[in-house]
Every structure is written in structure tokens, then in C-alpha cells.
Design a protein that fits this description.
The protein has 293 residues and is of the alpha/beta class. It contains nine helices and seven strands, in the order ααββαβαβαβααβαβα. It has a seven-stranded mixed beta sheet with strand order 1-3-2-4-5-6-7, with helices on both faces.
Length: 293
């Protein structure tokens, strides 16, 4: 379902970028899809043809990869990219991006962590146990949505011997307005667990205080470059779930905007291209980049 949505998004945003007058009528459709996909599609089976994601399918980096169903594959260089999906999702949500990164020569570990079962601090500690198993590797991180907050929390509590770069895709760096709106709804509490309550903006959540990474990091936000974004219920430009302003974080080396909704932004080819640029050079695209500070 998510990949079908991605194809729809490509068509809709092609029209948006061309200035078609009919685009505003699609905002409601995209908003509904965004909200629905944010709360569903997280525990389904991985699509056919995805990369191996279990220890019995691959023995990666010469180590057992069963802890919290961490998954790595295709060792090539001594640079390992950890991928972290968003809340309520699974590692398969990052498979397309994992393949692109792996095909560019990086070893990849697509971590299938229990995002709705624990607090952000506990998830950060679980990530630490995974990272510690690869001391010989230079470690990079690529995250979607809440995955960026998990990594920021991890980096504020743990040292990485050989730290590389961090790319955060659509992170709620300052918290998510939707989390504050839905936090008391029983279905939200049930589906998104402790971490879902910590995604609220300001002092009521944990995003603002998750720490500023000391490594080079860049942010890819979703938005359409207009005063009103995909979701008209959110202030300013947004990807349907997270506002562009709330993705920004002091200290980012680069910041860029792509016209994709939150549930599929990490699956898009352009996002993969920008991610690889930053992993390799510390910049997304110099002539189009701006500051996120």
C-alpha cells in the first residue's frame, strides 16, 4: 500500500511543481492517506523482492544479527550505515533506501526495532547494544521520522568510536504537532506506545531535549514550498505529518526540501540520491542547499 501511495505522490507532486491549478484539491486526499499510513501498515509482511532481513537468510559482518532483529548485509568496506525506520513501522519501510545505499558500496544494517514498545531512552540503549557489536566499522546513520530522535538520544548518551555522518529524513526535531493533538486518544496510545507520547513538541515531549549531534548531520524535510502544506491542519509548509519548521535543528550542516509526504519520503529516488550525497560529501547538493539552523 505504501509503495502504491508513493507512485500516486509522484504524479500529484509533478503537477504541483508545474503549477497546475487543480493541485489544492488533492491536499485532502494526500492528507487522508498520510494520516492513515502513519497509523497503519507498520506490522505487515515485507513486500516480495526486498533485501534479506533475518539472521537465517544472511550472516552479515561475520556476526549473529538476531538481537532485536537487527539486520545487516553485503559487507564491502569498513563503513556501516545503520537505518532506523519511524514509529509504528518496520525495517521493510527502509528497504528501498537500504538497497540504494548498499549498491553504492556501504555495508548496511536495517534495524527492525520495537518502536512502539519502549521509551525513546530505552530504544537508544537498545541501539547502543547493536552499535557496540561493530567496533571496527565507521558508523553512519540514516533515519526516518522518529528514528532521528532515537539516534539523537543515543548519541547524547553513548560514544561512537568511529562516527561518520547522520542523515535525518523528516524528523520531528522540535516535536510533532499531531502527537500533541492525538496524544490522549486511546487508539493513539495503544498503537504508538510510550514513544508516541514523547513526540509532543516543547517541554511536554522529549524531542527538543534529545541532544544536538556533534557529528556532521543533515536534514531532509518534506514540503511543497508554499505557505500552506499538504495538511492544512498543520501550520505552515509540511509533509502531512511533520511541519518543515519542526524538522530543523541547530547545528545541521545542510538542509533541503523535497515534495513528498511523510509516509513515503524515505522511499523516493530523489531522497536516496540526496542521502548518498551527504554520506559521501557532507552536503546534499551545494547549489540548492540551505541552512537548517
Amino acid at each position: 500500500m505504501t509503495r502504491m501511495c508513493a507512485e500516486m505522490v509522484r504524479t500529484i507532486h509533478k503537477g504541483a511543481c508545474s503549477g497546475f491549478h487543480w493541485y489544492p484539491y488533492f491536499r485532502g486526499i494526500v492528507m487522508a492517506l498520510t494520516l492513515a499510513l502513519s497509523l497503519t501498515d507498520g506490522n505487515g509482511a515485507a513486500p516480495e523482492g526486498t533485501v534479506p532481513r533475518s539472521a537465517d537468510e544472511t550472516t552479515a559482518l561475520g556476526q549473529d544479527t538476531t538481537t532485536e532483529t537487527a539486520k545487516a548485509y553485503s559487507i564491502k568496506d569498513k563503513e556501516l550505515v545503520f537505518l532506523l525506520h519511524g514509529i509504528g513501522k518496520g525495517a521493510y519501510d527502509m528497504d528501498a533506501l537500504a538497497k540504494r545505499i548498499n549498491n553504492s558500496g556501504y555495508a548496511v544494517l536495517n534495524w527492525d526495532y520495537p518502536s512502539t514498545d519502549h521509551s525513546l531512552a530505552d530504544l537508544a540503549d537498545k541501539l547502543a547494544m547493536e552499535v557496540e557489536r561493530f567496533p571496527e566499522y565507521k558508523i553512519h546513520f540514516v533515519t526516518h521520522s522518529m528514528g532521528g530522535i532515537v539516534v539523537r538520544t543515543f548519541l547524547s548518551k553513548h560514544d561512537v568510536k568511529k562516527m561518520g555522518r547522520l542523515v535525518m529524513i523528516a524528523p520531528p526535531s522540535q516535536g510533532a504537532e499531531l502527537a500533541e493533538f492525538f496524544c490522549e486518544w486511546p487508539i493513539y496510545k495503544y498503537m504508538l506506545g510510550p514513544a508516541g507520547q514523547e513526540l509532543k513538541p516543547g517541554e511536554s515531549g522529549k524531542c527538543v531535549d534529545a541532544g544536538i549531534p556533534t557529528c556532521e548531520f543533515g536534514i531532509i524535510a518534506g514540503g511543497i514550498g508554499r505557505p500552506l502544506g499538504i495538511n492544512p491542519l498543520l501550520p505552515g509548509d509540511n509533509d502531512g505529518t511533520v511541519t518543515v519548521e519542526s524538522t530543523k535543528l541547530e547545528g545541521s550542516k545542510d538542509f533541503t526540501l523535497v515534495p513528498y509526504p511523510h509516509p513515503v519520503i524515505q522511499m523516493m529516488g530523489r531522497t536516496a540520491e540526496l542521502t548518498l550525497n551527504f554520506l559521501e560529501t557532507g552536503q546534499f547538493q551545494p547549489e540548492e542547499s540551505g541552512t537548517g539552523s
